[in-house]
């Protein structure tokens, strides 16, 4: 049977490949981004209790009203922005579904979408499935800051959307006040441009830096779709629950896709999250916890030949290895897994053209014992 692939250049994701390789070679897995420590017992108990109470049938398509109300209150506290929980918040099957439904709803055939690379790998396939044309702009490889002049030069009359990500996966870079200023100027210059802002690591930010998301600015919020993840915030990536916030007119269109994409999201977990969000301490101290892990990992790399690229958010650390090997990052990542027992992600996987800057991404959402073993391996190379 002949099947014309809609994504001919897409294979199994690098995250799956490296995790399988780690399992095959009994390697420490710092490749795929998931915590190895348990989630809150209170949150587990809340899910269990709601299952026992009979909250096991379909939730409303946009999300449980109680959860959307708590999200609205959280946004008001954090960003001093009022959003309508009924018309501007949609609970989704993870941030990936939120991103996919947004792009499918708002990007039309032939319209261009600017993506800043390195970029999380779900953006470009969604753009292509929507019939859009991805236009990539490289971030500065030294510190992963945006080149706003290049971004402006890339935008044309066909450009529908700009995808941004802060804190940034894979680098851990975060937007500065100057970046927000440039972003606002970009919208003023391009009245039809929309911003899709991936902010799933909003609470995992370090060194007293603020999270400068689009909802904190009224002008940006009017033209933006902001995406968040409970999985990242509460260490429950397997739950696949997130949400998006967008103006009413955009939300209306996104929900048309969402309702046929997954319709609704896990009901008892939504009830549990609505209760769990009432206590701000459940999400406010997460950055401090992960900063200690980052510092622990980086301090133990001081004796290694790897160059540490500063990470100001997420739970990822990029290491440059050009003092260690001149192999491609894919080759070196494979050898590191097979011969040394440590799995990572080659950063070229985050570029459409597989740009190789001799960098690997390591996930430090692990226990101290795991991080110490990983650092010991790297220091011996």
UniProtKB/TrEMBL annotation:
Keywords for this protein: Aminotransferase, Pyridoxal phosphate, Transferase
Gene3D superfamilies: Aspartate Aminotransferase, domain 1 (3.90.1150.10), Type I PLP-dependent aspartate aminotransferase-like (Major domain) (3.40.640.10)
SUPFAM superfamilies, per the entry: PLP-dependent transferases (SSF53383)
Cofactor dependency: pyridoxal 5'-phosphate
Database matches in Pfam families: Aminotran_1_2
UniProt superkingdom: Bacteria
GO cellular component terms, A-Z: cytoplasm
Chain ranges of the Aminotransferase class I/classII large domain: 27-377
An MF annotation (GO) of this entry: pyridoxal phosphate binding
Family: Belongs to the class-I pyridoxal-phosphate-dependent aminotransferase family.
Name of the protein: Aminotransferase class I/II-fold pyridoxal phosphate-dependent enzyme
Organism in which the protein naturally occurs: Marivirga atlantica
């Amino acid at each position: 049977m002949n099947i014309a692939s809609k994504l001919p250049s897409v294979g199994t994701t690098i995250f799956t490949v490296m995790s399988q390789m780690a399992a095959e070679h009994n390697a420490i897995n710092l490749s795929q981004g998931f915590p190895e420590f348990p989630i809150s017992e209170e949150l587990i108990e809340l899910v269990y209790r709601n299952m026992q109470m009979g909250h096991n049938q379909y939730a409303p398509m946009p999300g449980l009203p109680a959860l959307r109300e708590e999200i609205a209150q959280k946004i008001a506290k954090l960003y001093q922005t009022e959003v309508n929980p009924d018309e501007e918040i949609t609970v989704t099957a993870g941030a990936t579904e939120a991103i996919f439904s947004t792009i499918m709803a708002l990007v039309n055939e032939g319209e261009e979408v600017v993506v800043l690379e390195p970029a999380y790998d779900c953006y470009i396939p969604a753009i292509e499935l929507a019939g859009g044309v991805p236009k990539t702009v490289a971030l500065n490889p030294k510190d992963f800051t945006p080149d706003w002049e290049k971004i402006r030069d890339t935008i044309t009359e066909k450009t529908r959307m700009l995808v941004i990500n802060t804190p940034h996966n894979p680098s851990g870079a975060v937007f500065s006040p100057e970046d927000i200023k440039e972003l606002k100027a970009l919208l003023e210059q391009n009245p039809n441009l929309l911003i899709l802002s991936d902010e799933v690591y909003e609470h995992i930010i370090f060194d007293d830096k603020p999270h400068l998301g689009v909802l904190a600015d009224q002008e940006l919020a009017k033209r933006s779709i902001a995406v968040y993840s409970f999985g990242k915030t509460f260490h429950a990536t397997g739950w696949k629950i997130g949400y998006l916030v967008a103006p009413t007119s955009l939300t209306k269109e996104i929900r048309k896709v969402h309702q046929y994409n997954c319709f609704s999201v896990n009901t008892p977990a939504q009830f549990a999250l609505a209760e769990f969000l009432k206590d701000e301490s459940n999400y406010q101290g997460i950055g401090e916890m992960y900063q200690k892990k980052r510092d622990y990992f980086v301090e133990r790399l001081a004796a290694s030949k790897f160059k540490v690229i500063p990470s100001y958010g997420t739970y990822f650390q990029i290491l440059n290895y050009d003092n260690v090997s001149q192999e491609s990052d894919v080759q070196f990542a494979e050898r590191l897994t097979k011969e040394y027992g440590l799995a990572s992600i080659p950063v070229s996987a985050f570029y459409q053209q597989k740009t190789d800057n001799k960098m690997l991404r390591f996930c430090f959402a692990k226990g101290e014992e795991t991080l110490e073993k990983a650092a010991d391996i790297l220091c011996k190379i």
